[in-house]
Input
Amino acid sequence: MRIVSLLPAATEIVGALGQMDRLVGVSHECDYPEQANDKPRVTRCEIHGGALPSAQVDDWVSRSLVERGTLYTMDEELLRRLQPDVILTQKLCDICAVGYESVTAFAATLPGPPQVVNLEPACLQDVFEDILRVGRILGHERRGLGVVRSLAERVEAVRSAAERAVRRPRCVLLEWIDPPYCSGHWNPELVEIAGGDELLGRKGQDSVRITWESVLEAAPEILVLACCGYPVKRTLRDLPILQARAGWRDLLAVRSQQVYVVDGCAYFSRPGPRLVDSLEILAEIFYPTIFGRPHFDDGSVVSWTG
Output
């Protein structure tokens, strides 16, 4: 069976199932597991790389979706040569991958045609179901069950430990800085399981643009910056934008040095196995005396103290 993955989370699921050898093509963003970097890239994006300022990225995304309906281009000639049996993609978010309708229309022209698998999770349980489904499709249902069982045990370990805490910290998790976007889909749930109270998030729904005033009014004790698709270093470049906003210095999270920049590329924005790592990162932020801070040591989280 020859697999093509059009999104990083699907590639990570294939990796967790131990099937990277069957993966013959990946998207331009797939970079984990490490073997993904040796696979042919079957998509591209004009602004991939994070060079543009965040406000310009947001504007380009909005205009491109209106004008073209998609942000990405498939290498159709390469896909034909790869002859996939299965194409893993999604229609959850037009910003995250090639438009689903474009993928299915093109797949119908290929020999077979290949099976197009839509991964469309809105919560953590949906991600687990996606892992099980991909496992069944690839003929490795037992391996899928083992992966999900292990992930679920880690989730319950965080949940039970966080429940012992005396109080829940008030938190805002932003998925974009300029303009600000609240957390959506699985991220408010992760905050909840980790023992926090997400003040602006939309559990199980799309992340949406919010006003800076709403952040000020929420008055979070902890502010987590998990910019979609951005590693820590890139998000740190945008911190001066927040520092320049009216009321920044008055935020309790700022005054108490409880502002955290997390890796939104490897974690939080990828609905695959590493969402559980994202959960553990939040638990470390909220309750360091309970969970310690191993992800701080590896650079996945930076505490802002400026």
